[in-house]
Amino acid sequence: MPIDKRVASAAEALADVADGATVFISGFGGAGFPNVLIRALRDRGPKNLTLVVNSATHRYSYTHELIEAGLVRKVVCTAARGHSKEPSAFERLWMEGRIELECVPQGTFTERIRAGGAGIPAFFTPVGFGTELTKGKEVRSFDGRDYVLEHAMTGDVALVRADTADRYGNLSFRYAQMNFGPVMATAATLAVAEVRTMLDEPMPYEHVQLPGVYVDRVVAVAA
Amino acid sequence: MTTQPLNRLQIAWRAAQDIEEGMLVNLGLGMPVAVADYIRPEVDVFIQSENGVIGVGPLAAPEHLDADLVDAGSRRVTIRPGASIVDSSWSFAMIRGGHVDVAILGAFEVAANGDLANWDMRLPNKGPLVGGAMDLAACARSVWVIMEHMTRKGAPRLLQSCTLPLTAVRCVTRIYTDLAVVDVTPAGMVAREMLAGLSEADLRARTGAPLAFAPDCRPLVTPDIALPD
To answer: What is the ipTM of this complex?
Structure first.
């Protein structure tokens, strides 16, 4: 059967996400949040999820709805701070000890995911050396500089927002939509992309920013 | 010539004067992003935003806001001619690989050896937020800090060693404050410029680490720049 990764709805795209899954969610600063997929995941309601997402709470992302729905066991992120004086849903659960947090420097965050999709189990980075965030990690010196050992991350599902897709799962992004999307797709067993536009024809190769080999399902969503 | 402490826009102006043609510059959230407004127009530089925008331009006009074109502070921006956009992994590879010439960052504290504390004020009831601060501080070729010389309560922020959690060790090379421009050298802090009307003793009294003065230490002079209401 010819390759066709298009699915009719976000719900169908996420129909087999299981309890305990590690879920990557793309997006940064308002660009590239897969909000339709996030809502569909909330409606499906798998429990004990580990979210790997840049911000535990962002005003333009629906990530917090998964947390408020009680679906999340742990968050791996670079920003766990809410926007207002009152604690966010995440901050409240975290202070009550009901949700686990792993706070990671952003370049290490994205490189751990990249490594996960690139067959690299661990790597040394100078970032975070001598800080609380790398306490207890192995340190090695190369050419007189100290580096910290960081381990790759892989996931069960990646939720990615892109601009256009074709039936092969090739993706292109608008402006800063890319951010974590490409690496998250490479490091997840099931990579799902929501897009504004589904092309009828194959995408011209020079427009492809993430090859469809990394993408399992694509769904067109409004706007 | 002003003898009042600089306001935050004047500090940003002063830092902007040291940006050189051809540099790739990353500006931290808060005070540092204002530096872009004061880079001399004849100086051609690219501003890198860690979400992958290489060549950030001015803020977008209200009628051209685009949610897909944002900088690291979630501000809706434009891109300059010659700009490009990459994914986060490439952007941080650029930072870690030493391709960013200077990162201009805010700070709570800087130590005499260049240690920087700028990410965790230990706020009660708030989650941590590190973002790209550690990557930039550890890996930009130069790290400049712009900050108030003292806390609101009058305690020094330039210290023998930091009291708050570190962002990176031995990384800061220059500090721009409302009172002075201070280099962080292997021999410790050296004032390069100081507000007119302050004595060396005055500045030392406001500094929590040993402070030397450059032989050619000059008055710190900026234009008047009004803060927005």
So the answer is: 0.97
The pLDDT of residue B122 is 86
Task: Domain ranges for chain A, please list them.
Answer: 10-123+152-220
Regarding beta strands B77-85 and B116-117, do their DSSP bridges make them parallel or antiparallel, or are they unpaired? unpaired
Q: How many domains does chain B have?
A: 1
Q: What CATH number does residue B36 fall under? A: 3.40.1080.10
Q: Is position B16 within any domain?
A: yes
Which member of B50, B109, B148, B193 is catalytic?
B50
The answer to whether A57 and A28 have CB atoms below 8 angstroms apart is no
Whose structure tokens read 């962080």?
A: B184
For residue B165, which residues of chain A lie inside 8 Å, CB to CB? 131-132
Q: Verify whether the Cβ–Cβ distance B128 to A103 is below 8 Å.
A: yes
Q: What is the mean pLDDT of chain A?
A: 97
B225 within a domain of the structure (yes/no)? no
Going by the DSSP 8-state scheme, the letter that residue B17 receives in this structure is T
Size of interface A-B (CB pairs under 8 A): 157
Q: Is B73 on the interface with A (CB under 8 A)?
A: yes
pLDDT tens sequence across A24-79: 999 999 999 999 999 999 999 999 999 999 999 999 999 999 999 999 999 999 99
Is B2 among the domain residues? Answer: no
* Whether pTM exceeds 0.90: yes
Please compute the mean of the pLDDT values over residues B73-85 and round it to a whole number: 95
Report which of B38, B8, B15, B1 is spatially closest to residue B182, judged by C-alpha positions. Answer: B15
Give yes or no: B50 in active site: yes
pLDDT band per the 50, 70, 90 thresholds, residue B1: very low
- For A143, left (φ over 0), alpha (ψ -120 to 50), or beta? left
Asked if A103 reaches chain B (Cβ–Cβ under 8 Å), the answer is: yes
Residue B22: give the domain boundaries.
8-219
Question: Domain A10-123+152-220 belongs to what topology?
Answer: Glutaconate Coenzyme A-transferase (3.40.1080)
The tokens describing B125, both together, are 């009831």
Give the gap in angstroms from C-alpha B77 to the nearest C-alpha of chain A. Answer: 11
Q: Is residue B46 part of a domain?
A: yes
CA angle at residue A44 from A38 to A48, to 5 degrees? 85
